[in-house]
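Chapter review: from sequence to fold.
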Amino acid sequence: MADGILGLGSSGSLDLNSELLTKLKTAESTSVLDPITAEQEDTQSEIDAVDAVQTMVTELLDLVKDFDLFTSGTNIFDEISASTSGSSASFDATDTSNLEPGTITVNVTQLAQKDVYQSNTISDKTSTMDSGTISISIGDNTYDFSTDGKTYEALVSEMNNYSNLDAALEQVGDSSYRIVIKSSESGLSNTLTITQTDVDLGLEDENNHVLTAQNMNASIDGIDYDLSSNKVTMQNGLIIKAVSEGTSSITMERDDSSVIDAINSVADKYNDLVDLVNSYILGDEENPALISDSSTLKTMMNDIKNVFFGSYGLENEENMFKYGMSFDSSGYMQIDDSELSTALTDNYDDLKELFIGYAQKEGIGTRLKTYLDALDSLNGGLLSTYANKLDTRLSALTTDYDEASAKLDDKYDQMASQFASYTVLITQMENSFASLKSIIDGSSDS
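The token string follows.
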């Protein structure tokens, strides 16, 4: 049989049509979809770059929080290093901002303790008692407990209904128990007085008054203390807890090394941010710039630098350049540790004023913390606004790609259907032509 009219007929034409459609669709996809894909990839790379900048800004923010006036904890200038001697007292502080360098000596001569009574031994803790009354006085309160028909366990449970009493039925032998009654708190103000009427549990026996309430007696830097508690919280925030009789001391010093380390950490992280931002907005021959709108990052870096360059102190008399800090020609921060160390020794309060500041005139750290925190704010933050713009662009590109791809699919589905119809018609024509050709060839042979 012949190859068909113009080579379009026969079963081979189906493969030819499919191949032709694929080539046409591929060519059109390249011109329509590939530019969208390229823009999607560029936008995603830009989103990743902004995310990397935001991550480093957050890292810088975490370091700057050490210099924030309004920190919920202790700023770096208020940190104190301490060494202790002796074991009669322990030392702690939840807030070191009011602590001053120096030594505090504590001499404990007596520990505060609770009032503690025990009953005679009891062989059966579930047995019931005869009618009687136990009265317990503590401070201005007196509590009367009837023993009539109660078990020892029930009596103890009733005593524990009062917060200033601590009662228990303790097993003190293999088959013996004692009722133990304590004041909940220590000190003379929590002394117990126990009387028994028509019942004798031994609570009034002198030998069963096993611990006598007393106050703590101690001197702290020569000042005598007579307190019901073993813990003293001083006005400067230092917490002293007496643990045994004897003498202990704590020596406190400003932790200047932490301040220097913290300032260097901020400088190093700022310089890292300078490198990162420059790589994204400048690029080079091998790595083109990833950021299409460099003005946002340039504004951010200028704002940060302006914070460092500012004047501080109530009279605007302080700036970072007075204390060994500067910027080189490439915009990197430099720290002279020697000058900074001298400033901490000679001008500690001035340096604290520069970095921490006051409510009416914030310092470098306080201002910078506020600015960096606002960059990612949902309410118009510089970086968050830029990131949202990129997310919107990527979402729009995804929609454009999906719509364009769907249009191409529809177009070539229709073309495939048309080609299939044409193939049927052409095949019918070729079959008719083949029959006619056979008749003609037969006539010629005869």
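Two observations follow directly from the output. The two ends are 20 Å apart (CA to CA). Residues 281 and 294 are 6 Å apart (CA to CA).
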